[in-house]
Amino acid sequence: MIAADLETAINGLRGLIENAEAIVPFTGAGISTECGIPDFRSPGGQWTKNQPIYFDDFISSQEMRDEAWKRRFAMDEYFAKAKPGRGHRALASLHRAGKVPGLITQNIDNLHQDSGISAKDIVELHGNTTYATCLSCDRRYELQWVRDKYAAGANCAPDCSCGGYIKTATISFGQQMPEEPMRRAEALSKNCDLFLAIGSSLVVWPAAGFPLMAKQHGAALVIINREPTEFDALADLVVRQDIGDALAPFIAH
Ligand code: NAD
């Protein structure tokens, strides 16, 4: 059912949330647009400006690593300033109330952690862009360190002391999905009674399979996204409203 207006949407959400014992939110870039971080697929989004850098190209070319870091530093204008929005705060409230055993996110912006949800309850399918790691030895690097080295090396991406390549701790196109988060996301999807897909165009696989998995295992499915998605016909409730507006009533003060 597509909610006819915001009030109907909020009432529908309230009923489902009150009746649920285990709610699993699944978030995409749309929950963070009100925080100033552009999504990928809305008009004017990043997608339309730059072709993504595939993992194999990052590995095989210094030029691509330099370009990847140049883009990341340019994006810091958005990431560094962003604070959790109303959607993040509402989900943190539900988590505090003991209704959310875990949250799955495709986002890489760390805003769910910043909203107060403990990192152990957040499953990051595509990693985190607020720090970097060495692809060979897994050592963690802070972005400021990378930025200083990059600038000192005439815009050349630095390598780890072990010789490995340093990359933001994110999953690129063509990079293998992380095993443990995939396992945890599957378990959460199969064991919830309410699955909330929020701010995702649901076109990036395999992440987009989780709403389907939850529905097939008996959960009620809600999709909150201002544009239609391929899964709308399967959902128990479709909310085509602004995410912040739809979730603000669920922020506990
Ligand atoms: P997407 O860009 O494909 O889809 C976002 C959807 O959110 C769009 O359909 C858009 O209509 C909707 N939306 C945007 N703002 C909204 C709002 N205020 N209210 C309601 N709907 C809104 O994003 P995706 O499905 O998450 O896939 C993009 C991939 O890119 C993700 O896998 C993620 O890793 C990455 N990404 C992350 C961030 C981030 O961390 N904030 C930002 C951009 C891209």
Order of helices and strands: HEHHHHEHEEEHEHEHEEH
Q: Biggest sheet: strands side by side, in what order?
A: 3-2-1-7-8-9
CATH class category name of the largest domain: Alpha Beta
Count of folded domains: 2
Describe the structure.
The chain is of the alpha/beta class. It has two domains: 1-37 and 83-125 and 177-253, 3-Layer(aba) Sandwich (Rossmann fold), CATH 3.40.50; 38-81 and 127-170, SIR2/SIRT2 'Small Domain'. The protein has helices spanning 6-19, 46-49, 55-60, 62-79, 86-96, 111-114, 143-152, 179-190, 209-216, 243-247, and strands at 23-27, 103-105, 122-124, 127-134, 140-141, 166-170, 194-198, 220-224, 237-239. The strands form two sheets. Strands 3-2-1-7-8-9 form a six-stranded parallel β-sheet, with helices on both faces. A three-stranded antiparallel β-sheet has the order 5-4-6. Helix 6 links the parallel strand 2 (103-105) and strand 3 (122-124). The model has no long low-confidence stretch (mean pLDDT 95). Nicotinamide-adenine-dinucleotide is lined by residues 28-30, 32-34, 37, 39-42, 106-109, 126, 199-201, 204, 225-227, 242-243.
Topology:
Layout: H1 6-19, E1 23-27, H2 46-49, H3 55-60, H4 62-79, H5 86-96, E2 103-105, H6 111-114, E3 122-124, E4 127-134, E5 140-141, H7 143-152, E6 166-170, H8 179-190, E7 194-198, H9 209-216, E8 220-224, E9 237-239, H10 243-247
Parallel strand pairs: 1-2, 1-7, 2-3, 7-8, 8-9
Antiparallel strand pairs: 4-5, 4-6
The structure holds nicotinamide-adenine-dinucleotide.
The site of nicotinamide-adenine-dinucleotide (NAD) has 25 residues, from loops.
